[in-house]
Amino acid sequence: MATQTSSTEQSVSPATQRVALRCEGLVKRFADVTAVNGLDLEVFAGECFGLLGPNGAGKTTTVEILEGLTPADEGKVELLGQQWNSNDERALRERIGVQLQETQLAEKVTVIETLRLFRSFYKRGHSIDEVIQTVALEEKRDARVGKLSGGQKQRLAVACALVGDPELLFLDEPTTGLDPQARLSLWDVVDKFRKGGGTILLTTHYMEEATRLCDRVAIMDHGKIIALGTPLELIESLGADQIIEFRVTSPIPEGALTGLPAVTHLHRRGEDYSLTVREMGVALPALLAEIKRRQSELVSLTTHEATLEDVFVSLTGRMLRET
Amino acid sequence: MNPLIELTLTRVREFLREREAVFWVFIFPVLMTFALGIAFRNTAPDKTFVAIEGDASNPRVSELANFLAHSPEISSSVVTPDEAARSLRSGKIAIVIQPNGDSYSLRFDPTRPESRTARLIVDDVLQRARGRNDVVQIGEQRITETGARYVDFLVPGLIGMNLMGSGLWGLGFTIVIARSRKILKRFAATPMRRSHYLLSFMLSRLVFLFLEVAAVVLFAWLAFGFTVRGSWLTVFLITLLGGFTFSGIGLLVAARPTTIEGVSGLMNFIMLPMWLLSGTFFSSERFPSVLQPFIKALPLTALNTLLRAVMNEGAPLWTNWMHVAILLGWLLVSFVVALKIFKWQ
Fold it and tell me: Structure pTM?
């Protein structure tokens, strides 16, 4: 499986870029948990920035603070040069587009009626037809929202966020629960928006989505950012680019595995072993020899190039979708 | 595209596309008017059902049956003591008469109004049959004119109840559903004016308010010859005031709950007492006088009183300024409080 790196073509150099969104020292506590725990973030104009992390990492809370929907307990937020506590909240809302993770739009109204309603909230913006075309819902324009598929509903939700022609677009897990086909067509929508020069902050727990769409990603865990960079930088930071995953009939001591040549990291979960290796040609024969020497047998073995998923595993010792 | 108009149109569309809502708001009150109007329609006064306890072969018993048969108001039958007791318990008869030598004894439940009436009728018939003469002449004038029948009393009450129901459900439900589906939160993320959202409910209510009232009035006119005695302008103003007051209360009820269960409980808690106490089906004057100040302060009592005053008596609005003030008070307080505590997410 090859890692796509298309998103790094126009690599963004922080020093020369205008900042579209900045937050410092963000803290949000709920009764029993600190959802966001001292978070700093900078998103540059024109980039697609991904907030990556497992469920419960605090992604949604962070995004809702940035969107001005949830007040933070501590910290500063500035987007497009403005702050949320200013009197001009509505002027700022004219300039951003929001797709919330859990919104279920009214089911009895049609696609075009929904968009017309959202369009009416903005002083300026796209025409309804333009937006319908952008999200490829032409055939469903007169269908009721309740009759749409999951992917179509999600594209409509994004269309509602686009209708005011925003400079900054927030997408909170836009493709969660969608089938691959629906996900691809949503990615197209995101691409179109970026081509128009828009800035995006998106959250996801799909690695391939972040790799495919984002210029830079921040990996979030327990309310904090634990890694930040382009997807490629993060993968390279592993000091390795190959992963061996295998399963054997009888356990092998961890020391024996980490001691193998070219192995930089081991992650073990029950019967499943995952080795991060620098050189596959060196590590793989050594591993097979070690398994044989221990009189164990392979049940399965796969290798792949390192992904952001592996970055998360090596940083936290957990799989992204475990928690 | 004006946001207020678009929001209102969305309200109207959502309502019209919800078949159940249309049924409860338009069809149900009409059915209710029909059913109650039929059940309590004014025909010849009902007969009083009387049981004679004893054996039909007993001459005293047949003499008594003969006396009672002379009165057009009485329907009597001779039964065994067992059956008499059973019929009395089940309400099939109002009173039991037992010949007792030369006199009679009556058995009845004094808390039942029809039993008390039966006692007076039976007493009168028996005394006359045994030779009593009237000592004074009493003339009678019987009135069954339109406007004083039960259905005339009922229609304004049903309209009031319907305005309460559609105001509370219409706003309460829709808003809480929007909150639980995170639509409110989504709207809050746009530059939409929040006052526009709430105002759109008022405007869409305005569309349906008069249709609701018209449906019931029209039906009652066609089926029962119901007429409005006062001015239509007064009816319009009272409907407007009542409709908005209950919209305000609906807004207040919906200001915080995040689940349908939560808001349903709250709405029943608010509506149930008013269904019972506010004189929809029978006059609220029947409740004990200690309760009266409380009952009078209820918005539905005020609305029902105002509607009856204009529809049945043709009274102008200012004669009932107290009730107008009560409604205005509820309207104002519920709106202000609702806007203060309203939760967008």
Answer: 0.78
